[in-house]
Design a protein that fits this description.
Elements lengths: L31 H14 L3 E5 L4 E3 L17 E2 L3 E12 L5 E13 L2 E7 L12 E6 L12 E6 L1
The chain binds zinc ion.
The site of zinc ion has 7 residues, from loops.
């Protein structure tokens, strides 16, 4: 059953059997109209776009269709460049399966225009990162891009 299908009979409800290791998710995720264009620009052109709100003076990154402050429709898209600054970061010492990592890595909230992108920091020793550090997106080669945030390999110090 996909997420867009409606349940009309209670008997059609599903439940998760905790004895089963895999959760049976069969829905699809969509990034939405603005999200799709945002990721296509990264994939096809290696560019990061934002949408400014002329009422609020805020440029949203990732680009959005509507301003979350005043609900204005955001039709203008601007190339905000591929550089930002480290707004916040965390040092990762364990893998997803809670095993110790061979060497710690960095995840950062990178501020670009007035928005934040959460991503890996690369080419940066853990002890060298600082709040406000200028960074630049390192994109995967174009043929390896899939149209998602992973098309940016990591952000690296300038
Ligand atoms: Zn606004």
């Amino acid at each position: 059953m996909a997420i867009l299908e409606r349940i009309y009979r209670n008997i059609d409800n599903r439940y998760w059997n905790p004895g089963v290791k895999a959760f049976p998710v069969k829905n699809r995720y969509t990034a939405g109209v603005a999200g799709q264009r945002f990721f296509e620009e990264i994939k096809e052109n290696g560019k990061i776009y934002g949408t400014p709100c002329k009422n609020c003076g805020v440029t949203f990154v990732p680009a959005r269709m509507y301003c979350e402050r005043c609900f204005a429709r955001l039709d203008k898209w601007v190339d905000v460049g591929t550089e930002g600054t480290v707004f916040s970061f965390t040092v990762v010492h364990k893998t997803k399966s809670n095993e110790p990592k061979e060497s710690p890595s960095l995840i950062a909230a990178v501020k670009i225009a007035d928005g934040l992108l959460i991503h890996r920091l690369g080419k940066c020793p853990v002890d060298d990162v600082w709040i406000g550090m200028p960074v630049k997106a390192a994109f995967k080669p174009k043929k390896e891009r899939r149209g998602g945030i992973e098309d940016i390999k990591y952000f690296k110090p300038l």
